[in-house]
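Quick one: structure tokens for this chain, please?
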Amino acid sequence: MNIRFEIEYRTIYGEDLFLNILKEDGSQEHHALRTVDGVIWACELNVDVAIDYFYTVTWQGREKRSEWVFCPHSFDPKEVASPDVRAVQRDSWMDAPEDFRVAGTLVPVFSLRTRRSFGVGDFGDLRQMVDWIATTGQRVLQILPINDTTSSHTWADSYPYSCISVFALHPQYVELGALPALKSEKDRRHFDKLRQELNALTQIDYERVNAAKLEYLRLIFDEEGKRILSTADFKTFFANNEQWLVPYAQYCHLRDTYGTGDFSAWPNHKQWAEADRKVLSNPRNKAFKDVAFYYFVQFVLAQQLRGVHAYARSRGVILKGDIPIGVARHGCDVWQEPRYFNLNGQAGAPPDDFSEDGQNWGFPTYNWDEMLRDGCQWWERRFRNMARYFDAYRIDHVLGFFRIWEIPMPVKSGLLGQFSPALAFRREEIYGYGISEETLKATVGPIIKPQGAEVEAYNNTDYLFLRDHRNPELFHPRISGKKTSCYSRLSNDQQQAFDALYEDFFYHRNNQFWYEEAMQKLPKLVKATRMLCCAEDLGMVPACVKWVMDELGILSLELESMPKEPWVRFGHVENNPRRSVATISSHDTPTLRMWWDEDYERTQDYFNNILHREGPAPHPLPGWLAQEIIQRHLDCPSMLCVIALQDWLAIDEHLRNKDANAERVNIPANPHHYWRYRMHLNIEDLKHDKQFTEGIREMVTLGNRG
């Protein structure tokens, strides 16, 4: 009987899988498995008798056997219901090799700098960064989102987590030097002079850089576009991406025609019309010619990024991408498929170490009922698109798959949000905690309406309870309610009653409910691709998050300065779970050097009680101590240890930026932050600094990461 053996196994890089048949005489047969998508590996065998079998994977010359090696799986062809039915034996083995412990670097692509950059990091620079990663013995290069964020053609578009398309790549990352040369010598001289001028800046001039790159791309398109769009490679790209590419191109054309990405302000085409797809896909039509430039740009970007990915794999480097939790309110995704979004809500975050007033990101929240109705196809398409370019990914704010912090439109304050979905309280339940009817009436916020005096009244944060956004007869305890003046006016017994209700709501009542919410969404998405799944699980983390992540094998994020346990000041890296990513700082936090000088008392505590050193902590942070802190992280049990480039550079007091504050990538408390940080040195210089490079290689080797 012809049997197809299938195993679900997610590759990191370079693995080979084998099916091993145990024979009665004690010998084995080895059969190589093949995969198309990097998720399901298979081979077909003719099996006439019952067999025992197990799987092995070879990784960097080492072999690991499946967990069934001492208790093999069995298959008996006699148990197949009908010989006419093609028999498939499906198994799953999702764990990475036990000795898989690697080091890596986090750096935004826009922050990269080489001698040939055009004022912003690009995919050519990313290739050079891969070289540096490999030379230092690291195995992971983690970046921030690289999706198109172009809405206004101003610096406000620099925010990489507010993409207008979760599929399209940002034109600023195109490597112009990899394109055909411009035919005009005058143009070539002009752009080379401009490139040198922009590249000499200490920070990104987002508007000038993007205007120049788009102008260059327009010229190249005029000269080479017709030829490139007629190639087999472009036609294959178009066929594989047509579902999102055609609406995206029309959105960009209309955005540039009307001078705004806010489609609600357009005189027509306020929503994507599927009937337009056919005319926009035919090169003979004028409508196609109107949008062809955007097809061309995305094709070029995709080709370049896939080239970088292939190069990284050839050098044993894992590219780790980033999946933002939100999308731009007036972006193409909402324009094309508005049914998936709740435009009456704004996603954000409750108060935390980043912002004591909470955060309002402005993104629409998701209509999960609609998304679940079709099996989360939008998310699955998004994850599969990422898998074309990356071997691993970070889910930004994974808590959003459990519940999102939702702020009603058009309220601004993050303090006035509430978790959605959540099991809000009925009046009778509130009274059951000992809170009186009078207290509830005196401390509950008004019903929110989209305009007028009601909004102004709602913006008052002196409440203990907020009405549910969808049902005003249900109530949520207001986040940080104990800091309000109305709480201070309560009697002791009413304060204690509110404390008990507050604790129950945020840490106990919703745990099982939120677990079930996440398990409707995440399993299908995690299993959709071969990529290693990591998650940013910081903030107000309910207990159910760990349940889900452990069950699905998702790697957690561990920051020593932001421990998961609220009763400790610092985490203990030596106790990090194996399935985790250890790091020191992220794009949202101060760098190590900034953190060290931010709070002298906290730093002193860390110096004495975590590093176990006596005496006063030195300021500013010396290079030898930065090296010690990084080495502690490299030595920890976490599978991945990813260090921000700025923190690696902190080791060398001559190499690092003289101004530590210039290394900050983002300030989460500022919703209008200009994302423009760039390396202060060239990657070429970094690669040629043998003392620094060899020093990192030695640290990685000492940490047994390779």
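The mean pLDDT is 91.
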